[in-house]
Design brief:
heterodimer; A: 134 residues; mainly alpha; 73% helix; 0% strand; elongated; B: seven-stranded antiparallel beta sheet; 7 strands; 12% strand
Chain lengths: 134, 319
């Protein structure tokens, strides 16, 4: 364990430095112009948001939410309050799920959505990428 | 004492486990679904012009990457790629590094959807597909990169440039099982003037935007322009085109692109901001101020940048 820590420390320093360097480099690339990367990621986040809000319209998801005592309108409001970056990581997790269709996958998907919503509402704490507001 | 039957909840959980295990192990292959209607996939295809680089030792990553890059018109050897993508200690290459090396070669690395149908559609469109396979088992992995260059659904074969074999032929089911263990990881590496057959607008543009960080403006410009031929109304592609032209010092070209975006999407603040900047640099400060004010009024997460643009323009107008 100690050995691992000794190896890991310089690596983590390197990673932190690399990130700092990136952070300094990106905005300085061209002042006054909004880069395409920034633009694309915020447009993508909007699409993801629309996608998740649409999922909340699904009947099976809504029924489950009601069963868990979650108000669907409240859930929507919380999804709307997520930042673009949070939205992105959330949608990234969803991409890894098999697309619905047959029943088993459909059920797992519904469970995932419900846990996600309850996470956002602060009732559960399953997904580390959901940030909780105080 | 009679044996008590387990409570209902435990029994239900047991059966759920059984169901999950059975479906998990025998999860249907995508090919089974495709075989129901082989006509939908069409006649056999083989891209015979795709070159071949036999791999050395464990270096399937550089060999497979060299195969698709040379096919796309870049001249590069596996030996030249190895330092970029091969990790001697792991005796392999990471997927991320294949993507990065493709970008450095001025080609667009596009991850295709994890579906067999998509892979076949790309090959049919003439694009060889680089795939990650696990030739072993999930708990005894033997990772391998190869390039799919053809298939014949009726004869049940997939044709690959793989390892030391120029024409490696495997049955569909075997191919899919080995490919599935990598979660169906597959990419195409295309020249910027050629869109993947299965490209989706935002994922494609996100990949192209990655070229900007490498300052490959010429390639980025071409890729945005070809994206606009498929999605003529794409504001992101047109913004990207403007940004590449701006970086290449084509101010009037950039202005034209930004202006078009402000007409197509009159609430997209970044377009007004960039238009303001490019007008200011041409000395047209009055028009620039107007555009910058519009960006500030629209606001959004980047409001601070728009305000800065406006301040700089106002400062120049005073002088």
């Amino acid at each position: 364990m100690e050995k691992l820590r000794r190896i890991a420390r310089p690596i983590s320093h390197f990673v932190i430095l690399a990130f700092l360097w990136l952070g300094v480099q990106l905005p300085a690339a061209h002042a006054g112009i909004v880069g395409t990367e920034t633009l694309v990621s915020s447009e993508q986040a909007q699409q993801d948001r629309a996608h998740i809000l649409k999922l909340l319209e699904r009947k099976d998801v809504q029924e489950q939410l009601v069963a868990y005592g979650v108000d669907a309108e409240q859930a929507k409001a919380r999804v709307n309050s997520l930042t673009d970056a949070e939205m992105r990581s959330l949608a990234g997790q969803m991409d890894q799920l098999p697309a619905g269709g047959d029943s088993v996958v459909g059920i797992l998907f519904a469970i995932f959505i419900i846990l996600l919503i309850t996470d956002i509402l602060g009732l559960t704490n399953i997904f580390p990428f959901v940030k909780h507001r105080r | 004492m009679p044996i008590k039957r387990p409570p209902g909840a435990i029994r239900a959980a047991f059966w759920l486990m059984v169901v999950l295990l059975v479906t998990g192990c025998g999860a249907p292959l995508q090919i089974d679904h495709l075989l129901k209607s082989p006509d939908a996939i069409g006649p056999p295809v083989e891209l015979t012009a795709v070159p071949f680089f036999p791999q050395e030792d464990f270096q399937c990553g550089p060999a497979a990457l060299a195969t698709v890059l040379n096919w796309s018109g870049t001249v590069v050897t596996p030996e030249a790629l190895a330092p970029q993508v091969y990790l001697p200690e792991r005796q392999g290459s990471l997927q991320m590094e294949l993507l990065a090396a493709t970008r450095r070669a001025g080609r667009i690395p596009y991850l295709i959807q994890p579906r067999l149908e998509t892979l076949l559609a790309e090959v049919r469109a003439g694009n060889p597909v680089l795939v990650l396979q696990n030739l072993g088992l999930s708990w005894y992995a033997k990772w391998h990169y190869a390039v799919v260059v053809g298939f014949d659904l009726r004869q049940d074969l997939v044709i690959l440039r793989s390892g030391r074999e120029r024409r490696h032929v495997v049955p569909f089911k075997l191919f899919e099982r080995t490919w599935r263990r990598s979660d169906y990881w597959a990419m195409v590496a295309l020249p910027p003037d050629r869109l993947p057959a299965s490209a989706e607008e935002m994922p494609y543009l996100r990949v192209v935007a990655g070229l900007e960080r490498l300052q490959r403006w010429q390639e980025a410009k071409t890729a945005y322009a070809s994206a606009l031929t498929r999605w003529p109304g794409s504001t992101a592609a047109r913004m990207g085109l403007g940004n590449s032209l701006y970086a290449m010092k084509d101010l009037s070209g950039a202005e034209q692109a930004y202006r078009q975006v402000t007409l197509d999407a009159p609430t997209l603040a970044p377009a007004f901001n960039n238009l303001a900047q490019v007008l200011a640099e041409q000395g047209r400060l009055q028009e620039a101020e107007q555009a910058a004010r519009r960006a500030v009024n629209l606001g959004g997460p980047l409001l601070a940048s728009y305000e800065e643009t406006l301040q700089q323009i106002l400062a120049r107008r005073l002088h």
